[in-house]
Amino acid sequence: MAGASNVSVDSGIFKVDALTGFRRLFYLITPNESSFATTEEVPQYMVEAGPFFLIAIGLEMMIGHLQGNHQMYRVNDSLSSVGAGMFMMLIAGVSKIFFHSVEFAVYIWLHENYRLADLPWDSPWTWLLCFLSVDMGYYWFHRYAHEINFMWAAHQVHHSSEEYNLSTALRQSVLQRYTSWVFYVPIGLLVPPSVAMVHIQFNTLYQFWIHTELINTVGPLEYILNTPSHHRVHHGRNRYCIDKNYAGTLIIWDRMFGTFEAESERVVYGVTHPINSWNPIYIQFCHCIHIWNTDRKSVV
User: Cα–Cα distance between 254 and 261 in angstroms, integer?
Assistant: First the structure.
């Protein structure tokens, strides 16, 4: 069983030590510390990362000010992003989105009844297979979330900010969970549920740090990893940015499937039709309202 992950530093809001907390944001974990026999043993990594999100945002804000960029964070935009994130986590907590949800029950059922092989939960090869499978599953979910209107109704929440900083990463949809889980279910034909539960969380955690303008490039890693530069393109509404760079952790999927675009001209952030609101509740459901009104008019 995992060793390091079981060492808890429970001092109020901090459930793990600082080094572990920040390592997790970059997917810098080992199979040994993140492999578990059962889903009940898997930590709530997303919840435990909360304090480190806030520390990172504070550091980014401070560095921005020291560099003379006093417009990196707009109070209204940042509060909208954090508010959307809190709303999402509230719903997640009520519905236990990360644990024992109906969606993950389907994964468990598939694995228990139709798995093609018995892969050991504590094997580094199983861990690596799941890492790649979850990341590719995320690519296809993310791509369809941009191409299919009812999925975009949920995903547009994340793209509605016209700023690009770490708080933008927290601007998440309460509805997206109802479609994203489908893209991970096929992994259950091979990978034990506990392993998948770990990687689905870390795939999301990794994407936090790439929402920044402070990092220009990470050198040769740009060819393999999703980076701030690649993800800035994804958040752009420039013509060259539209429907590009869907990667979660690895940019190789975009390179393989023809959706990669390198950053060139300065990116203008936001959706092509700005929502013009700071209300986190309206941000969550505005496109659903638009679809409803459009369909109702077409019927009439």
Answer: 8
